[in-house]
Amino acid sequence: MIKFFRKIRQQLIAEKRVRQYLLYALGEIVLVVAGILIALAINNGNEQRLTRDKEQVYLKGLQEEFKVSQYKLKNLIALNQQNAEGARTLLGFMSDSTTLTDEAAFSKLIYSTLAYDIAFNPNNSLLNEMINSGSLRDLSNPELRRRLTNWMATVEDVARQEQDQEQERKRILNTFLSDRYSIRTVLEQAGQTADGLDLSPSAQPHSNLALLQSKSFENHLLLFLLACAGTTDTHYLPLMEELEAILKLIDREIEN
């Protein structure tokens, strides 16, 4: 092909057809430029396709992570509400201790209210990788990028509230470290010793019902209840709204 064009140029020069030669040369330049532009367009198209494919991989991975986090948060909200309800019930019994004389019922309520700590552990491995590597910019939706960046700070704020609530829970549990009360009674009456501790039943179980008369225990329960309410209403529920908003944005960006 190059030899063919060269032969035409040589023939035009030999025949001293300058005007035709100039027109031909200009046309050849136009063809070359057009070829370069077409090649660039193809290359840009390929790069854009690769970028879109990469973005889709990230979006689907983020969608999976946030759905798992959503499931965890739903369960955590339910558990925290259960803890708050347990504390509220205990406070009700303390207002009228004559309504509760059953040691087993008291122990089960204590155990179900205080047995589990509260900690939201979202699945952020892909998001952390994207932030650390700068790949967050590969997401084309600016609103999604902003929310994902803010998500990490929001989760850290929630963790601080959870730590405050855990401190209140520990203060209640510390009540049982005195000689007046018995953790073993709580575990036995709640049916936990047979589930893994492998302890023989106490010959003379120590009653904890005197706690219903303890002002200190009541104060700690009130602070724990306030912490539970603050964690759910001020942190978990807004966090769930943010999580669902992020999932909606991700769903909108994923190509079917």
Secondary structure topology:
Blueprint: H1 2-14, H2 18-95, H3 103-114, H4 125-133, H5 142-174, H6 183-189, H7 215-253
Helix pairs in contact: 2-3, 2-7, 3-6, 5-7
How far is the N terminus from the C terminus? 45 Å
Shape, per Cα inertia axes: rod-shaped
Query: Which sheet architecture does the biggest sheet show?
Result: none
Radius of gyration: 35 Å
Helix/strand/pairing class, anyone?
mainly alpha
- What's the number of helices? 7
Q: Strand content of the residues, in percent?
A: under 5%
Please give the share of residues in helix: over 70%
Order of helices and strands: HHHHHHH
Low-confidence stretches: none
Q: Calculate the mean pLDDT score and round it.
A: 84
Q: How many strand units?
A: 0
Q: How would you characterize this protein structure?
A:
The protein has 256 residues and is mostly helical. The chain contains seven helices and no strands. The longest helix is centred in the first third of the chain and has 78 residues, at 18-95. The protein is rod-shaped and about 105 Å long.
Keywords:
single chain; 256 residues; mainly alpha; 0% strand
